[in-house]
Amino acid sequence: MNPKTQGLDPIDADFEPADEFTTAADAAAPARAPVDPFADFPPAREPEAGALAHDPFAPAAAAPAGADDPFVPGPAAERFSDEDVGDPFSTAAADHEPLPSPAAAASNPVHELIAGAEAALGEAMIPRIAIHVYCEQQATADTAERAATDRRMGKATATIKLGGLSAAVDAYQNQPTPSLVMVESLAPAGEMLNQLDRLAEVCDPGTKVVVIGSANDIALYRELMRRGVSEYLVAPLDPLQIVRAISGLYADPSAPFIGRQIAFCGAKGGVGASTLAHNVAHAITERLLTNAVLVDLDLAFGTAGLDFNQDPIQGVMDALSQPDRLDAVLMDRMMARCTERLSLFAAPATLDDDYEIGPEAFEEVTQKIRSAAPFVVLDLPHSWASWKRKILLGSDDLIIVATPDLASLRNAKNMVDLVRRARPNDPPPRLVLNMVGVPGRPEIPVKDFGEALALAPSLVLPFDPKLFGSAANNGQMLAEVNAKSPAAEGVNHLAQLISRREAPPPQKTSFLSSLLKRK
Predict the structure, then answer these.
(1) Please, are residues 55 and 3 in contact by the beta-carbon 8 Å criterion?
(2) SS in 3 state form for 2-42?
(3) Phi and psi at residue 227, to the nearest 5°
(4) Do residues 213 and 186 make contact, with C-beta atoms less than 8 angstroms apart?
(5) β-strands 342-345, 336-337: how paired?
(6) What is the distance between the alpha carbons of residues 131 and 53, in angstroms, rounded to a whole number?
């Protein structure tokens, strides 16, 4: 976007969808008042780079005589009558058009649907850009401050100031504009657009502009998009709305998708975190029928190869030793194929090396692996290092596995508190209580354990040494040993919670096919 380059407006002002797509049958039907089907929808994404060659903030070129201008009284303006959205450029618009209440904005089902869809995918880090935010309300500034501390904004640099759109115009008279400018304006639409025209005069080429307003007005939104504004957000906002709006502006359509990263971590050694990580990865692929990659990061003592009866020549250590060379072809060679949908990055599980690897290598490798499958399950060792901290805080889902004893309670509380402080905009980690009900062992009750962490367990697994022992010794998953066991069904339930997917219905088999199978 180049706000200083003058050109032609490629958008035809007298384009009327009703005229272009009306059939003969529609023409014969009684006339109905047109209804805007997008009135309740959230703002659309910015057009592709290079799609607009005109000055995004310059006044639009004069329309041909007789053309319908949707922003002045006329035939097209009937779509934005007072009964619908009102005239967004009249200073009296605020007098006759009530603003949406915060409660109404919060209950928008479209926003909830989009948030749910985004939550089922992995979320990318925002690139290393500078962001300036000019707010009119202190509440908006507080929200922007919380968004700036979000884990997805770790590479970006954000500066939040009060003063709104007018302060931004004054600030950039004598200084260059950053990659992204977010401005809040509570002024009427006409005054807001005049201030945006002044901002366009001082904006550098390539700067993106996001406007935060108080009117949920489709006509105003369309005019802002026509002038080249990248996005329009309606206050009040929450931090994730700001983060996802920025992420959407810098999403690369040509980049590979980002799989959802799920990290399993034990509150102490021997609680079964690795066993659960392996079984959940298997359940995601075999029960929910989607691809996944299991990464065993316990380099010295990893058991993923044993649990899947795999002894690959290459594995995750080869990737960590040369992260810059890791691409899709090399990644495919290093991974072992456990099932048709499940791939394994096995650990070397030897003591021939000290495994002194920097946190940058772990971060680069895990980020590249996320492009290999929709779900990436990380089996983390019971140790503490800077790379593990980064992975814990950077994962989309974190599962803490504990047993009902005091040491697990203390360690689990430390991890939960750390995650809550570092990820205030994310859901809390999931808690799994394993090996509950060991005969003769004093245990902390499940209810008391959850209350101490202020976190209800997502799964409680009973003590079943025969099932778990048989699976481990035979290199099988719990579902392969006994699919009807409570532990196997619990693992399936946890896999559905994490992946946000339902298992497909079982296929019905005919009597003839069952006879053929017997033969």
Answers:
(1) yes
(2) CCCCCCCCCCCCCCCHHHHCCCHHHHHCCCCCCCCCCCCCC
(3) -85, -5
(4) yes
(5) antiparallel
(6) 24
Task: Tell me the pLDDT tens digit for each residue of 279-335.
Answer: 999 999 999 999 999 999 999 999 999 999 998 888 999 999 999 999 989 999 999
CA dihedral (281, 322, 312, 328) in degrees, to 10, reads 60
Rounded CA-CA distance 205/145 in Å is 27
Q: What is the 3-state secondary structure (H, E, C) of 119-187?
A: HCCCCCCCCCCEEEEEECCHHHHHHHHHHHCCHHHCCCEEEEEECHHHHHHHHCCCCCCCCEEEEECCC
Tell me the pTM: 0.69
Burial of 335: CB neighbours in 10 Å, binned 0-12, 13-18, 19+: buried
| b (16+ CB within 10 A) / e for 401-416 | bbbbbeebbebbbebb
413 contacts 429 by C-beta, under 8 angstroms:
no
Q: What SS3 class is residue 370?
A: coil
List Cβ neighbours of 224 (8 Å cut-off, separation of 6 or more).
Answer: 193, 196, 211, 232
Alpha-carbon distances, residue 334 vs 50, 121, 244, 313 (angstroms): 40, 25, 34, 8
User: CA nearest 312: which of 301, 320, 323, 304?
Assistant: 304
Burial class (CB in 10 A: 0-12, 13-18, 19+), 109: exposed
Interval 417-447: pLDDT, tens: 999 999 988 999 999 999 999 999 999 999 9
Residues in contact with 446: Cβ distance below 8 Å, sequence separation at least 6, in sequence order? 404, 433, 436, 457, 460
How crowded is residue 213: how many other Cβ atoms within 10 Å of its Cβ?
23
**DSSP letter, residue 345:** E
The neighbouring-strand residues paired with 114 are: none
φ, ψ (nearest 5 deg) of residue 160: -110, 130
Under 8 Å CB-to-CB from 196, ≥6 apart: which residues?
57, 165, 209, 211, 224, 227, 229
The reported pLDDT for the residue numbered 513 is 61
Do 298 and 380 touch, CB atoms closer than 8 A? yes
What DSSP character marks residue 210? E
Can you tell me the distance from the alpha carbon of 285 to that of 420, in angstroms, rounded to the nearest whole number? 30
Distances (CA, A) of 65 to 40, 367, 406: 32, 55, 80
In terms of Cα–Cα distance, which of 253, 198, 204, 226 is closest to 49? 253
Nearest CA-CA partner of 120 in 511, 477, 498, 437: 498
Quote the tokens at residue 420: 């809550």
d(CA 29, CA 378): 60
* CA dihedral angle for residue 20, residue 24, residue 27, residue 29, rounded to 10 degrees: -140
How far is Cα 115 from Cα 123, in angstroms, rounded to an integer?
12
Q: Position 158: which residue type?
A: A
Report the C-alpha gap between 242 and 182 in whole angstroms. Answer: 10
